[in-house]
Amino acid sequence: MSYTAPMESPVRRPGEKLLPIDWGAITPLRLRAQLLAEGAYSGVHRSRRRGAGVEFGGQRPYVPGDDLRFLDLRALLRHDRLMVREFETETERALWLCIDATGSMALRGPDAPGAKVAYAALLAAAMARVAVAGQDPVGLSFIGGHDPAGVPAGFGNATFERVVSRLETLGASGDLREDLGEVVRAARMLDRRASRGSAIVIFSDLIDLPPDALRPLTALAAAPRAVVFVQVLDPQERDLSFRGKVRLKALEGGQIVTTDADAVRARYRAALEAHNAQLRKTIEAAGARFIETVTDGDPVLHLRTVLQAVAEARR
Asked: What's the CATH class of domain 5-48+89-314?
């Protein structure tokens, strides 16, 4: 079972690696994320503590916008570098957001408010807002994309602004079927940065993954960490809502299929259900959570579901 896009859709031109993202009705991202966070989760906890029970958790390079109270002046005097001290408590656990920005995530069908990667960015930005309001650190990373650099985990509004600014420059590129290394690199980065007790939320369509692609990502839950996979599909992808005979081209892999959409729709939907059932089995067997979302759905309801899954995974 594979997802494909209609041939007449704006897909990759010869020699063109970057697929433009049509944000649609999702912009402006910053305001939408704030409103979404407020609507979905108004009673966030305050987890940042000082005093007894706070343990030193290491250092990292200073990033503009970090709280100056945590600058390590000794490191500055010794090494002439600005370093920030990090602390760990039972309730201070980082939220890491990982977005699949490969080619297939650029899809936006006629019934969707925006591309899949844009919808994932909206949910991720809203989750970042929730974390910041709860005084938890939040970081951002990517699988693929034209510029995979993320945002180090940090506190406060400055970190939220960096996350949103980075999401607003998203462009989808890359093909996981040809480069499994993208998944391995993303998993290794998260493994290094997301400490024990962190939550990792991965947004992806999870379609046409190469063999063993999930293994390095589900392994992140063994640290232990709370890991949640959020599948993001387009309505056309879920329903195969084309009519009559169509020629379809995959956004990743390049396959071309000619078929009668009306004749194969029932089999396609059954195949998608079987695919997701196997995904859920594999992900939950590793101790992670699996959430299904569609880009024409209510983002408030989707956000609440993801937040609940993170809370359950952390227990």
From this structure: alpha beta
Which alpha helices (H) appear in 2-133, and where do they start and end? 29-40, 73-79, 116-133
How far apart (Å, rounded) are the C-alpha atoms in residues 278 and 232? 16
3-state helix, strand, coil in the chain (%, to 5): 40, 20, 40
Distance CA 31, CA 34 (A): 5
Q: Residue 206: name the closest of 122, 288, 307 by CA.
A: 288
Q: At what angle do helices 156-167 and 29-40 cross, to 10 degrees?
A: 120
Phi, psi of 286 (to 5 degrees): -85, 0
Structure tokens at 57: 């958790």
Residue 46 · residue 287 · CB < 8 Å: no
Q: Measured between alpha carbons, how far is 108 from 114 in angstroms, rounded to an integer?
A: 6
How far apart CA 173 and CA 252 sit, in angstroms, is: 9
* CB neighbourhood size of 153 (10 A): 24
| The two three-digit tokens of residue 100, written as one number | 């699949």
Domain limits, the chain: 5-48+89-314, 50-87
Contact status, residue 95 vs residue 201, Cβ threshold 8 Å? yes
The whole-model pTM stands at: 0.79
Strands across the sheet with 138-143, in order?
151-154, 138-143, 95-100, 199-204, 226-233, 289-294
Name the token pair of 300: 């408030």
pLDDT in tens, 98-135: 999 988 899 998 889 999 999 999 999 999 999 998 88
